[in-house]
Amino acid sequence: TSVTCGILRLSVPQTLWGTCPVWFASIFPQTLVGALLVMEVGGDADYWSLVKTVATAVATFAQVAASGIAAHSITTTIERDHKELSLPRPEHEEVEKLTQRQVVAMERFKECTSWAKWGTIHKAVLFSAAALQLAGACVIAFDYILLQPICFRSFQMTSRIDASFADGGLEGSVLNLVIAPGGVLTLALMGLASVMHLSHSASVERAAHSLSRVHPT
Fold first, then answer.
1. Are 165 and 179 within 8 A, CB to CB?
2. Contact 36, 52 (CB under 8 A)
3. Residue 31 has pLDDT above 80, yes or no
4. What is the pLDDT of residue 194?
5. Terminal-residue alpha carbon distance, the chain
6. Is the alpha carbon torsion for 198, 203, 205, 206 positive or negative?
7. Which of 207, 191, 14 is nearest to 119 (CA)?
8. CA dihedral defined by 83, 85, 87, 89, rounded to 10 degrees?
9. What number of other Cβ atoms are within 10 A of residue 33's Cβ?
10. pTM
């Protein structure tokens, strides 16, 4: 919403006033739900749990209602002012030129990402990155269903970091959330996979830019 206001070059007061409904439809309900989570302690836990459930339902309804109203308003405006909105405008020229350049860039990118044109190294890097990410994701998924986790300790939003492991805490350090060596190795695998994926993506983008300069159209 704020980005759209910036594109339309609206003034700051207009932007702040126009986006005020977001506070009531999204920010306030979600903040209230988060605050109520820490109230589920002590003898009033059942009461606050009920309040939290009601607040969550209200927040969900508010989000769905706001999304529905926004979608209805946008659809109504498009149907009512379609002809006017479709007319070319001088300020659209730069956007149209950028769109044309993006089409060309996308075609060059498709050429560079063709599996048949890749070398053995590129294929090996991409396959290894995908395999490591899949392996790490499977380990993390199984860790959630195991009775005795091997990667991450259970920690709730209402827990205290300085509490003992037996009481659901982390004994004073957030680093204790990761269980060694299982959690450390899993994070290392995911990190290595991410580095390999990013290096491959950067290589493909450089090749696409070079091809675009050689064949601009």
1. no
2. yes
3. yes
4. 93
5. 35
6. positive
7. 207
8. 160
9. 19
10. 0.60
